[in-house]
Design a protein that fits this description.
This protein is an alpha/beta fold. The protein is 55% helix and 14% strand.
Length: 188
Amino acid sequence: MKIIGILGEIGSGKSYVAKKFGYPVFNADEEVGKLYKKDRSIFKKLKKSLPEYFIKFPIHKSDISNAILAEKNNLKKIIKIVHLEIRKKMNIFLKKNKNKKIVILDIPLLLENKINKPKDILIFIQPKKSELLRRLKKRKNYNKKLFKIFKKIQLSLDYKKKKSNFIIKNDFKTKTIEKYVKRILNQI
């Protein structure tokens, strides 16, 4: 089984590109969302660590945002609690799909959390800056301060680009993405 890790900044189109490969995708953001909605043990751990922000279950994105915006270190506390569970879910996903030719990891902090292995294929998604900002501002939960906080915990885009085996220049057009994906699949 080959593992493809998708890299790029927030809003670059990582999840969209990941789906275009046509293989099983582990989407960490979706899994985190499920934890917040369905996992009472995560809620209890967050409530214990940050009681003033986590009052009732299920957890809402606004609870997370408020905690992070109030104090930078809260993000580290949240990540520490949530990351362990996400890693477990990823391992279950990998075991379940061990007979697949390829699996895709769509994990925003893939390199930062040292989740990838040296033989994994890394693909960097590079959008035009202007298009990226336009798309981010359209998101209903876009918050510039939050965006900056998240960027600070990420490795530089240049570093991620250098570590990548392939770069997809995302113009947010299906035809372009499909062309890149086809070319990459042919090469691996």
